[in-house]
């Protein structure tokens, strides 16, 4: 299909239409400098079109911070029911990094034992992506996520006047959405602008000193590096990087009883490998006892372990981890320092 | 994308989502044996009568509703009765609750999970089975399976070490294994004790007297984390190849299905790729042993 151009007013009109059909979520401005959050849309005018990144990624709609897995009633013969909640949802204003983050979670939750709680929410999600405004922490180009060619229904890129957007259609549902919305074909100049825009986004960003595809191999030389300890010394072990990461999906399981102690539910809640007790077992042994081990584990999981396991990196380059980090532990800084200290093994790409 | 349920996420073929992935099945407690002051054995049967179909070395997620879930090793081999045993040390909330159950109570079971011991690769081999403390629990299922088809295996040597005489598990079975001519059972306690007349010393002190055909031997080791490095060293000194040293590792699997991340050992998931690994799989993983 040829690329279409629609105006901001038409985008708001589309949102109004979608809101009539069901729940729509979009980035909203939050108090404070450069703070945005995905929230339920109640007025199409509230949706922010141009922003850097939300505090918490869109994963919260497929993998909520707290999610009921079971409900049970106690008694002589306890009864227990699996809870798999999902509802149709339109997610508006998702950037390429966050779109990639969702595909990374899709792979993990569908692997081996396919997790219905996640997958059913995802299956009912329709996504309208939008081009971003990078800041000093973004590094999506280095992670191969500056562009993405699937995982959305529509994708919007602003034209220089910022009053019009080029629309790429990514699915039949996207075609469906555009019906009844006034649009025109993009001109050759507008189509070539897409590339200019992308180049500007990429060159504006910081970069890893390596092609991301080489990271699993590079990391094999980083295990014993003193660089980990240096960065970990600053770390508060607060787990903010885990919670704000679009590709982190570790969780804990908790039971909670009702006040009458006859009914209860089992929930999963976001957990983080940077938290001290994460790898502790019942007998007290902690397999990653200190912060250096935990920081190293987090990085290895993102750039080596899961990359090797699933064939894709578990970092989307959004920079949320460092943006929200109190002491600015920065993946680009850490990885480039590791490369500077230990080289590329003389063999590798990038 | 359509609003109806889909097993496809944006075009990528996936396994069908399992709505009952985290749903435990009910199991009834048929029998309880207080093994030691800390450990009790629960004999269970699935309430729906469908056996678990487990392998020795696998684990289940056991839950007490209102308290939580915990990963527990299978303590018995599957047999025709459809019952299975779990041996539980009282260390936390769930295991504490399991220690308060009575016969007739119901618990929740998910699983079995994990790979279990590779019985097929043990056939026609000499087996050196080494258990430390409650490491004997998963090994009990393995030993039961081996003894049920004893003719498939060559020499069977069992080393079992524990701290104090009162911590000895499965006394009757140990006596029965020890009485068999086709099993070489050797016990040791860490320090001398007035109630103990057998061998004294940590488990590695049993090694000098072992006569092994290293090329034919598979060692299977389960014990507390501290035990592994010493036992592995002894096995290697005896000439057993790394791929023939099998270990079952302890981690806190919270989901059992490769999602929650808690049991990760470098790039491996203990719940999916383990808990049984050969040492050749682990020797370059700095978090394993």
Key traits:
heterodimer; A: 350 residues; alpha+beta; eight-stranded mixed beta sheet; 12 strands; globular; disordered C terminus; B: alpha/beta; seven-stranded mixed beta sheet; six-stranded antiparallel beta sheet; 7 helices; disordered N terminus
Description:
- The complex is a heterodimer of chains A (350) and B (289).
- Chain A has 11 helices and 12 strands.
- Chain A is of the alpha+beta class and 350 residues long.
- Helix content of chain A is 33%, strand content 19%.
- Chain A has helices at 8-21, 96-110, 116-123, 172-178, 188-204, 215-219, 226-232, 240-243, 291-310, 320-324, 331-342; strands at 4-7, 23-29, 36-40, 66-73, 79-82, 89-94, 125-130, 154-158, 164-169, 184-185, 251-257, 263-270.
- In chain A, the strands form 2 sheets. Chain A has an 8-stranded mixed β-sheet, with helices on both faces. Chain A has a 4-stranded antiparallel β-sheet with strand order 5-4-12-11, with no helix packed on it.
- In chain A, helix 7 packs across helix 9.
- Mean pLDDT of chain A is 94; it is low at 346-350.
- Helix content of chain B is 18%, strand content 30%.
- The longest helix of chain B has 13 residues, at 136-148.
- In chain B, the strands form 4 sheets. Chain B has a 7-stranded mixed β-sheet with strand order 12-11-10-9-13-14-17, sandwiched between helices. Chain B has a 6-stranded antiparallel β-sheet with strand order 6-5-8-3-4-7. A two-stranded antiparallel ribbon of chain B has the order 1-2.
- By secondary structure, chain B is an alpha/beta fold.
- Chains A and B meet through strand 4, strand 5, helix 2, helix 3 and strand 11 of A and strand 1, strand 6 and strand 15 of B.
Elements of chain B, N to C (H/E): EEEEEEEHEHEHEHEEEHEEEHEH
The most extensive interface between chains reads: A-B, 69 and 56 residues
Query: How many H/I helical runs of chain A?
Result: 11
- Number-wise, the strands of chain B total 17
Poorly predicted ranges of chain A: 346-350
Per DSSP, the total helix count of chain B is: 7
Distance between the termini of chain A: 35 Å
Helix-strand sequence of chain A = EHEEEEEHHEEEHEHHHHEEHHH
Provide the low-confidence segments of chain B as ranges: 1-13
Oligomer status:
heterodimer
Helix content percent band of chain A? 25-40%
Using only C-alpha atoms, the radius of gyration of chain B works out to 20 Å
The neighbouring-strand order within the major sheet of chain B is 12-11-10-9-13-14-17
Strand content of chain A: 15-25%
Radius of gyration of chain A: 22 Å
């Amino acid at each position: 299909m040829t690329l279409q151009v629609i105006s901001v007013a038409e985008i708001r009109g589309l949102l109004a239409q979608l809101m009539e059909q069901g729940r729509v979520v979009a980035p909203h401005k939050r108090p404070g400098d450069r703070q945005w959050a995905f929230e339920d849309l109640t007025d199409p005018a509230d949706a922010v079109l141009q922003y850097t990144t939300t505090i918490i990624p869109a994963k919260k709609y497929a993998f909520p911070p707290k999610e009921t897995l079971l409900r049970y009633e106690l008694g002589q013969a306890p009864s227990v029911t699996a809870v798999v909640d999902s509802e149709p949802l339109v997610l508006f204003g998702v950037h390429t990094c966050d779109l990639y983050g969702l595909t990374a979670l899709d792979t993990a939750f569908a692997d081996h034992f396919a997790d219905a709680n996640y997958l059913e929410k995802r299956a009912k999600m329709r996504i309208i992506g939008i081009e971003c405004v990078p800041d000093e922490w973004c590094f999506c180009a280095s992670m191969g996520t500056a562009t993405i060619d699937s995982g959305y229904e529509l994708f919007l890129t602003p034209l220089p006047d910022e009053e019009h957007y080029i629309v790429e259609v990514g699915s039949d549902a996207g075609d469906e959405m555009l019906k009844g919305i006034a649009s025109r074909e993009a001109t050759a100049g507008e189509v070539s602008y897409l590339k200019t825009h992308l180049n500007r986004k990429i060159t504006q960003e910081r970069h890893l000193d390596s092609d991301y595809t080489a990271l699993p191999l590079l990391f094999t030389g980083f295990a014993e590096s003193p660089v980990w300890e240096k960065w970990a010394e600053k770390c508060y072990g607060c787990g903010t990087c885990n919670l704000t990461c679009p590709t982190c999906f570790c969780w804990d399981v908790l039971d909670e009883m009702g006040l009458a102690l006859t009914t209860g539910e089992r929930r999963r809640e976001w957990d983080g490998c940077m938290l001290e007790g994460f790898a502790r077992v019942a007998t007290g042994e902690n397999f990653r006892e200190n912060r250096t081990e935990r920081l190293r584990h987090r990085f290895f999981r993102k750039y080596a372990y899961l990359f090797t396991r699933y064939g894709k990196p578990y970092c989307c380059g959004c920079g949320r981890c460092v943006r929200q980090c109190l002491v600015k532990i920065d993946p680009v800084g850490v990885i480039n320092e590791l490369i500077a200290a230990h080289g590329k093994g003389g063999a590798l790409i990038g | 994308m359509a609003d109806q349920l889909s097993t496809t996420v944006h075009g990528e073929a996936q396994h069908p989502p399992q709505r009952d992935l985290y749903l435990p099945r009910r199991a009834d407690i048929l029998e309880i044996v207080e093994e030691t002051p800390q450990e009790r054995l629960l004999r269970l049967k699935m309430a729906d009568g469908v056996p678990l179909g487990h392998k020795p070395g696998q684990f289940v997620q056991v839950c007490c509703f209102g308290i939580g879930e915990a990963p527990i090793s299978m303590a018995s081999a599957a047999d025709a009765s459809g019952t299975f045993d779990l041996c539980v040390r009282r260390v936390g909330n769930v295991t504490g609750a399991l220690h308060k159950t009575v016969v007739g109570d119901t618990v929740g079971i998910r699983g079995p999970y994990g790979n279990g011991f590779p019985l097929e690769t043990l056939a026609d081999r000499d087996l050196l089975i080494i258990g430390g403390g409650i490491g004997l629990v998963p090994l009990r299922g393995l030993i039961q399976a081996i003894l049920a088809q004893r003719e498939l295996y060559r020499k069977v040597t069992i080393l079992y070490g524990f701290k104090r005489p009162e911590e000895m598990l499965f006394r009757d079975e140990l006596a029965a294994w020890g009485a068999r001519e086709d099993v070489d059972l050797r016990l040791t306690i860490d320090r001398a004790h007035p109630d103990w007349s057998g061998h004294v010393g940590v488990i590695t002190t049993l090694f000098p007297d072992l006569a092994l055909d290293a090329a034919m031997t598979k060692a299977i080791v389960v014990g507390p984390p501290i035990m592994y490095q010493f036992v592995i060293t002894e096995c290697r000194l005896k000439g057993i190849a790394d791929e023939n040293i099998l270990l079952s590792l302890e981690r806190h699997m919270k989901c059992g299905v490769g999602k929650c991340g808690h049991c990760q050992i470098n790039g491996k998931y203990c719940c999916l790729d383990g808990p049984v690994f050969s040492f050749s799989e682990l020797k370059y993983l700095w978090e394993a042993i």
